[in-house]
Amino acid sequence: MIKANNPSLTSWVEVPEGSDFPIQNLPFGVFKTPGLRPRLCTAIGNFVADLQVLSEHGFFDDLKIDKAVFAQPFLNDFIACGKEKTSAVRNRLSEVLDSDLDDWDASELAAYFLHPMDEVEMLMPIKVGDYTDFYSSREHATNVGTMFRGKENALMPNWLHLPVGYHGRASSIVVSGTPIHRPNGQQIPQDAKAPVFGPSKLMDFELEMAFVVGKETQIGSSVNITEAEDHIFGMMLFNDWSARDIQKWEYVPLGPFLGKSFASTVSPWIVTIDALEPFRVSGPVQDPTPLPYLQIDGDRSFDIQLQVDLQAEGQPATPICRSNFKYLYWNIAQQLTHHTVNGCNIKIGDMMASGTISGPTPDSYGSMLELTWRGSKPIQLPDGSERKFINDGDTIIVKGWCEKDGVRIGFGEATGKVGSEQ
């Protein structure tokens, strides 16, 4: 067992019941305050722990990590230290925060390195080099294919043989809380013979998760499936906002473009693969059997519960979707292996998203397109209003967590409020 994952560990920092951030999690992020420049942190209960301060006080000296790494505005340099050292930092943090610690008076130093979460600003945790979006949920692909091509032709011929994906726009990935502007673009109204230009009328969310590359490769090389997770640092929540009307008009023949590239929202915390180890599960049975380079052994998925809330202006948040990461047909090891099989190189900080994560039941569909079945089954909100797609003033809140043996590991939230394009 990884030392920091011990389910019996407790922290001297109070961790409220149901918190995403017990001592067994210790995700990594970047924060700032009015008096502090951006620097690395972790989360414990309702606090962020300043890793730069802990480093300056010598807590990581024996790990041989340059102190400047903890004072950076992104996690990239820290991730580049390698999993052996980043895992050692997480284990050291569990020792520092352990309620059984008796080597020093934690309360004396706590005032220097702990900050209430509601008093800090969480920032984009990584500088994203490249971003790839996969299309790995069989349920989602089947739903969308059924809507547009009919049930008999729902899945394209290649879908059960490889993780379908496309290269997206890294520059418009934003951290939770960033306002989302309704995009302009071309659309073609029903029965129209020519396109029109204007703001999207069919704004949608896509419930996804993303992983962050933690070990680079050289161009011309590929990653073996057995080593794929060695190249993955951790995971985040991901909302791949979509303008369905713009997307419908533009996507043939080359796929998503302006209907996707205007914004994607991520959670500010990266939960490490180490922290997710206790929650491994097998994924769906893959039939036909993938080609040898994509064949896996053991449990390569994770039991991550996912929820999407819609909060109308001035109203309480309403859960509209409950899904699970384990529903994905193609897992993260297969995604990364396929991505590199042609010799494409990957770099530290690259982000790869799962594609919409839909489950087997209508309440587990991971987009408004599916939840309302192209607007034919509107969602009813508590104030009596209906939603076919997302209105201006609506906030979409994505949550995710694992739970087992009394331990809950959470990802925080990926939140964005939609407004008119400015």
Instruction: Choose one word for the global shape.
Output: globular
Helix content, binned percent: 10-25%
Over all CA atoms, what is the radius of gyration?
22 Å
Question: Any idea how many domains?
Answer: 2
What would the CATH topology of the largest domain be? Answer: Fumarylacetoacetate hydrolase, domain 2
CATH class of the largest domain: Alpha Beta
Give the rounded overall mean pLDDT: 96
Strand segment tally: 26
Which runs of at least 5 residues are low in confidence (pLDDT < 50)? none
CATH 4th-level superfamily of the largest domain: Fumarylacetoacetase-like, C-terminal domain
Strand content: 25-35%
**Structural class determined from secondary elements:** alpha+beta
Q: Let me know the largest β-sheet.
A: 8 strands, mixed
Number of helices: 10
CATH architecture of the largest domain: Alpha-Beta Complex
Termini separation comes to 51 Å
Question: What does this protein structure show overall?
Answer:
This protein has 422 residues and is an alpha+beta fold. The protein folds into two domains: 3-122, Roll (SH3 type barrels), CATH 2.30.30; 131-419, Fumarylacetoacetate hydrolase, domain 2 (Alpha-Beta Complex). The protein is 17% helix and 27% strand. The strands form seven sheets. Strands 6, 7, 8, 13, 14, 16, 17 and 22 form an eight-stranded mixed sheet that branches. The relative contact order is 0.17.
